[in-house]
């Protein structure tokens, strides 16, 4: 769809932005018990900030796409299952599905074993930035792969559509679309009236130049929950509002929004990284930083014509 020059720096930054938002947001996610647990296990022995399921599943997806050269759901399901560890704080439904696959159940059976209509959590959306990178030069393949990749854990239409919107937002920012053009692109691919209503809200605020409300107001309008419906548009709003501001300012706003902070910040962080490149990201001690940068580079290389 778009043929402009892409740079490897922005691919790495998209993945590092995701992991940074996840790691910096994780201490604020969940209730008292979850936060106390994260205080105990939230750093590696080397003092690096640990990330959670959001980054683990994004790396699983990237590693599968790079190894297979295309989306291979059986391979991806097996990598998701191998990557599962309770200490990464997976969603309850996703954890059950991955444990079943680990025990040998076919992923197609496992995917509907918890919620009969599939999950509408934000778990497919939080890893969707990887698809935007892998298919950065093939728009229709990106849309198709995003929906397909959601199916293993999130076959509910809302879980899928949230993932598509997040992938599209990353794609738009990677290609340096204006905020108005990015929102037009998202609107043209949004069918669900609940998500479309929230996108209308973003359009109004973008048109009036008034993208500047309090976290409390934004949470009231867009949500801060663990479902795709209550988190994806919040992340997109935050990324668009802070796309030209320092990462730390965006992160402070995401933390003030509360709720599912690691995931909202991971999705917004991926979009921000895709728009800004690596040099503007804060260089704090992050678990596997060099490896994540390397995977971003490989996702760029696959898009480069030989
Ligand atoms: N799991 C966490 N954080 C723990 C915080 C728990 C805290 N006590 C709290 O409840 O706030 N974080 C990680 O999980 C999220 C991603 O979740 P994912 O992968 O989408 O999981 P799941 O279980 O599929 O969906 C999440 C919840 O949404 C509700 N839900 C989804 N589909 C449903 C359906 N069809 N019917 C009814 N409910 C449905 C359920 O409550 C699910 O548990 C991210 O935040 C990640 O960081
Ligand atoms: Mg998480
Ligand atoms: Mg979360």
What key phrases describe this protein's structure?
ADP-ribosylglycohydrolase fold, 16 helices, 306 residues, globular, binds ADP-ribosyl-L-arginine, binds magnesium ion, mainly alpha
Description:
The protein is an all-alpha fold. It has a single domain, classed as ADP-ribosylation/Crystallin J1 (ADP-ribosylglycohydrolase fold), CATH 1.10.4080. It is built from 16 helices and no strands. It has helices at residues 8-25, 32-41, 53-68, 73-83, 92-102, 107-110, 129-134, 139-150, 157-174, 179-187, 193-207, 215-222, 232-241, 247-257, 261-276, 289-301. The longest helix is centred in the first third of the chain and has 18 residues, at 8-25. It binds ADP-ribosyl-L-arginine and magnesium ion (2 copies). One magnesium ion binds at residues 52-54, 89, 262-263. ADP-ribosyl-L-arginine (F2R) is lined by residues 29-31, 34, 52-54, 89-94, 115, 117, 119-123, 153, 156, 226-227, 260, 262-263. Belongs to the ADP-ribosylglycohydrolase family. It comes from Massilia frigida. InterPro entries: ADP-ribosylglycohydrolase, Ribosyl_crysJ1, Ribosyl_crysJ1_sf. Keywords: Hydrolase.
Number of strands: 0
How far apart, in Å, are the first and last alpha carbons? Answer: 19 Å
Percent of residues in helices comes to 55-70%
CATH architecture: Orthogonal Bundle
Radius of gyration, in Å, reads 17 Å
Structure class? mainly alpha
Can you count the helices?
16
Taking the sheet with the most strands, its summary is: none
Q: What number of structural domains do the residues give? A: 1
Element order, helices and strands?
A: HHHHHHHHHHHHHHHH
CATH class reads Mainly Alpha
CATH topology: ADP-ribosylglycohydrolase fold
Which ligands, by name, code or SMILES, are bound? ADP-ribosyl-L-arginine, magnesium ion
Q: Spans of 5+ residues with little confidence (pLDDT < 50)?
A: none
Shape: globular
**CATH homologous superfamily label:** ADP-ribosylation/Crystallin J1
Strand content: under 5%
Mean pLDDT rating: 95
Keywords: Hydrolase
Protein name: ADP-ribosylglycohydrolase family protein
Organism: Massilia frigida
InterPro entries: ADP-ribosylglycohydrolase (IPR050792), Ribosyl_crysJ1 (IPR005502), Ribosyl_crysJ1_sf (IPR036705)
């Amino acid at each position: 769809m778009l043929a402009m020059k892409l740079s490897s720096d922005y691919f790495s930054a998209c993945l590092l932005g995701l992991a940074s938002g996840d790691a910096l947001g994780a201490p604020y996610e969940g209730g008292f018990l979850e936060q106390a647990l994260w205080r105990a296990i939230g750093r590696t022995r080397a003092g690096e900030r640990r990330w959670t399921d959001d980054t683990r599943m994004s790396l699983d997806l990237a590693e599968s796409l790079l190894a297979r050269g295309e989306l291979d759901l059986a391979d991806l399901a097996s990598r998701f299952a191998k990557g599962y560890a309770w200490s990464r704080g997976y969603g309850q439904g996703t954890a059950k599905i991955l444990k079943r696959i680990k025990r040998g159940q076919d992923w197609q059976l496992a995917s509907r074993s918890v919620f009969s209509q599939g999950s509408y959590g934000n778990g497919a959306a939080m890893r969707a930035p990887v698809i935007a990178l892998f298919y950065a030069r093939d728009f229709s393949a990106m849309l198709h792969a995003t929906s397909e990749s959601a199916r293993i854990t999130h076959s509910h239409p809302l879980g899928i559509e949230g993932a598509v919107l997040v992938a599209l937002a990353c794609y738009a920012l990677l290609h340096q679309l204006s905020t108005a053009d990015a929102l037009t692109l998202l609107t043209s691919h949004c069918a669900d009236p609940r998500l479309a209503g929230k996108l209308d809200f973003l359009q109004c605020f973008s048109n009036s130049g008034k993208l500047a409300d309090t976290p409390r107001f934004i949470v009231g309008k867009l949500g801060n929950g663990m479902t795709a419906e209550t988190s994806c548009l919040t992340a997109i709003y935050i990324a668009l509002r802070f796309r030209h501001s320092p990462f730390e300012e965006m992160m402070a706003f995401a933390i003030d929004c509360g709720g599912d902070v690691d995931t909202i910040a991971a999705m917004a962080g991926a979009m921000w990284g895709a728009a800004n490149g690596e040099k503007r990201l804060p260089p704090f001690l992050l678990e596997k930083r060099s490896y994540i940068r390397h995977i971003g580079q490989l996702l760029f290389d696959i898009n480069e014509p030989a």
